From TrEMBL:
Residue ranges, compositional bias (Low complexity): 312-322, 436-445
InterPro entries found in the cross-reference section: DUF222, HNH_nuc
Compositionally biased region (Pro residues): 389-410, 420-435
Superkingdom classification of source: Bacteria
Segments passing through the bilayer: none
Organism of origin: Blastococcus goldschmidtiae
Name of the protein: DUF222 domain-containing protein
Pfam families reported in the protein's UniProt record: DUF222
Domain HNH nuclease: 620-672
Region Disordered: start-end pairs: 312-331, 381-472
Length: 707
């Protein structure tokens, strides 16, 4: 369970921003009580569901039972719950059956799949609005270890912040899922891409409709940006349309009247953020337009824009061959066919002998008979692969002993061999022997003792063998033993299949870690990742950095140098700046940087751009601040910082400089509030941390989002 002591929002503590006075404090207390009661309700619903098991419903296939299609469509957490539990819940809560089933699914997911989230909800660290993203993105992760890791990482992130809104949590959840569950995320992306399309649905306003287009994230971002630029280009006197209305009219003109408009062509602007492991073929997610996306989508867009050459040099993590252990495919095993066959025959004979009750005793053959049995089985396997299935000659057994033979497993009859007697449960059998052990020899099924023949007058009235109630009872016991044996064999095969799958997964992970994509992905630092790249990958990255604007690019690619521990942005640079800082600055050294062997300790290093003289920041400073603050820095806000403005001086200019340490990005509304809302105080620290104080004394802080 989640350690409640590590949560600053534990029931006995105050909210992370503190308790407000007056009515607002009462609102905070009520919100915490609502979260607590939501957790209590989830536990109670799960407890109720446990009293309504699915096995109490009609079995599948019987009249009135749930159809196979509906059963397959039910969520996994409801598989063991009666289909009528939701109906009972609906009556109790005055809800529709669909709403009751949704509540049942959410509650069971919280209790059984997200226990840490349930405790955080009960402690007031998160509220009901946060649950949707955790239930929809983290709850479905099939692997228990991965799901627990993502859940813990997200909750730790929430605990370390003063304000976390549901959209902010959604972004963190998407990044964590892409990082830890990359293969499944790639499969989900492929499934979603097949559903691309457009649709129309009626709007609640009379006479209006919503036109929706389901597109890949880069396509949607580029489309939105292009429509925005077309709308901004319209500057007609007296035009009272809003920007959104202009974008809608431009969309209609471009699609319905492509030859009747005079709009100038525009270039879509996309911000693509990708780390070295992602560009090298690893599984680390990237960002497009500030939204997390799978690594393969980042590489696909980079190749489409000409940033990366050709196909990826190594397969991504999600493209490794999946070891599907479906019933139609054999399990992955390291045993040879002969070893597997001998093992199965040995177990079949052991089980048959145990059922006959002749296992053990003073008359068992000596241990050397076991070795001879193994040798005969190996010879039979060899002959079966090279000749027709004819029984090989077997040396006569020692005097007084039956020839050791092994019947085949149930359901695998072989020509010329008798079927196996129904076996006994595997728990009553000894462990498989090995050559040279002290185990006893396996007798032939034909050597089973025969019933004694009577010699008295009463024997004539004895029932014939195989008839009577005792014979029926024996047959019933034999049939039950056969069913148990089939079940145990299936369990044995399943266990071997699981072991084989685990070995195959371990081999896949090891192979990926040794691949050109895995080495930079598993390296400890960015420098180690660069060293781990292959020569062709280094050349591709160098070519990417040398690319300038043009050919569909609004700006040239740049390197973000970040702090390894905090992810804070330290500087933005490119290939030209790197070359300038790699030499002493002399002209001959700039022409041939490889031959510059001068002392570079006095040269200026990389860092944030220098302050700008004047009110407007220069191009380099503007680019750096917008990369550091891509979204509004007000606590809880996720709006974009507009490209044309809204970089605010924390200390008004000219009292404060136009520098990275005195500029912060806001959305339009919060920029106005910073200057106009009475009683609010904003303070920007040197490291970029923004502290906001409300008129009622609440304190919230935000830091630039880590790279």
């Amino acid at each position: 369970m989640f350690d409640t002591a590590s949560l600053p929002g534990a029931p006995a503590g105050a909210p992370s921003v503190g308790w407000a006075s007056g009515p607002l404090g009462a609102v905070q207390a009520a919100e915490r009580e609502i979260s607590k009661q939501t957790a209590i309700r989830a536990r109670a619903v799960a407890e109720f569901a446990a009293t309504r098991p699915a096995w109490a419903d009609r079995p599948a296939g019987t009249p009135g039972a749930m159809s196979a299609e509906r059963r397959a469509a039910r969520p996994e957490v409801l598989a063991e719950v009666s289909e009528w539990a939701a109906h009972e819940l609906a009556v109790a809560l005055s809800r529709t059956t669909t709403a009751a089933e949704n509540l049942l699914e959410r509650s069971l997911t919280l209790v059984h799949r997200l226990p840490r989230t349930l405790v955080a909800l009960e402690c007031g660290v998160i509220h009901d609005g946060h649950l949707w993203h955790l239930l929809e993105k983290v709850g479905p992760i099939p692997d228990l270890t991965t799901r627990a890791r993502v859940e813990q990482e997200v909750l730790d992130w929430v605990v370390g912040r003063s304000v976390t809104t549901p959209p902010q949590l959604a972004g963190k959840v998407r990044r964590s899922v892409l990082r830890h569950d990359a293969e499944a995320a790639a499969q989900r992306l492929l499934t979603a891409l097949r559903k691309r399309g457009v649709s129309v649905r009626p709007d609640q306003r009379e006479g209006m409709a919503v036109f929706e287009a389901l597109l890949a994230l880069p396509e949607a971002q580029a489309l939105l940006d292009a429509l925005g630029q077309y709308a901004d280009a319209i500057d007609e006197p007296g035009d009272t349309r809003s920007r959104g209305q202009k974008m809608a009219d431009c969309l209609l003109d471009l699609v319905l009247r492509p030859g009747e408009h005079d709009h100038a062509a525009v270039q879509a602007r996309l911000t693509l953020v990708a780390g070295v492991p992602t560009l090298a073929g690893g599984a680390a997610p990237g960002e497009i337009g500030g939204e997390p996306v799978p690594a393969e989508m980042v590489r696909a867009l980079a190749r489409a824009l000409g940033l990366l050459p050709g196909a990826p040099s190594s397969p991504p993590a999600a493209s490794f061959p999946a070891h599907d252990l479906s019933p139609d495919e054999p399990p992955v095993e390291t045993w040879t066919a002969a070893m597997r066959s001998a093992d199965e025959r040995w177990w079949a004979e052991v089980e048959a002998r145990a059922l006959r009750g002749d296992w053990g005793g003073a008359d068992d053959p000596p241990p050397d008979e076991l070795e001879r049995w193994w040798a005969l089985e190996s010879a039979r396997d060899q002959l079966s692969r090279t000749a027709p299935p004819v029984a090989p000659p077997i040396a006569p057994p020692p005097t007084g002993q039956a020839a050791p033979t092994a019947p085949p497993p149930t359901g695998r009859a072989q020509p010329g061999r008798a079927p196996t007697t129904p076996p006994a449960p595997e728990s009553a059998l000894p462990a498989p022997p090995s050559p040279g052990s002290s185990a006893t020899t396996l007798p032939s099924p034909d050597s089973a003792p025969t019933p004694p023949v009577g010699d008295g007058p009463d024997d004539e009235a004895s029932p014939a063998p195989g008839t009577g109630s005792w014979a029926d009872a024996d047959r019933a016991v034999d049939e039950a033993g056969a069913i148990l044996l089939d079940l145990q064999r299936a369990m044995h095969s399943a266990g071997r299949a699981v072991d084989g799958a685990r070995r195959a997964d371990a081999d896949d992970v090891e192979a990926w870690q040794d691949s050109a994509a895995g080495r930079p992905s598993t390296a400890a630092s960015t420098l180690d990742r660069l060293h781990a790249l292959a020569d062709e990958q280094r050349q591709a990255l160098a070519h990417l950095l040398d690319r300038g604007a043009g050919r569909g690019l609004v700006d040239r690619p740049r390197i973000a140098v970040v702090d390894e521990l905090t992810g804070a942005l330290l500087c933005l640079t490119d290939s030209d700046e790197l070359r300038r800082h790699a030499t002493c600055g002399a002209r001959r050294c700039r022409r041939d940087p490889a031959r510059c062997d001068h002392d570079l300790s006095g040269r200026p290093g990389l860092g944030a751009p220098a302050p700008t003289d004047g009110y407007r920041p220069g191009a380099a400073l503007d680019r750096f601040v917008r990369a550091r603050d891509p979204r509004c820095r007000f606590p809880g806000c996720r709006r974009r910082v507009p490209r044309g403005g809204e970089l605010d001086h924390d200390r008004p200019w000219p009292e404060g400089p136009t520098s990275a340490g005195n500029l912060v990005g806001y959305c339009t509304g919060h920029h106005r509030g910073k200057h106009q809302a009475p009683g609010w105080r904003h303070h920007l620290a040197a490291d970029g941390t923004l502290t906001v104080a409300t008129p009622t004394g609440l304190i919230a802080t935000t830091a630039p989002p880590p790279f």
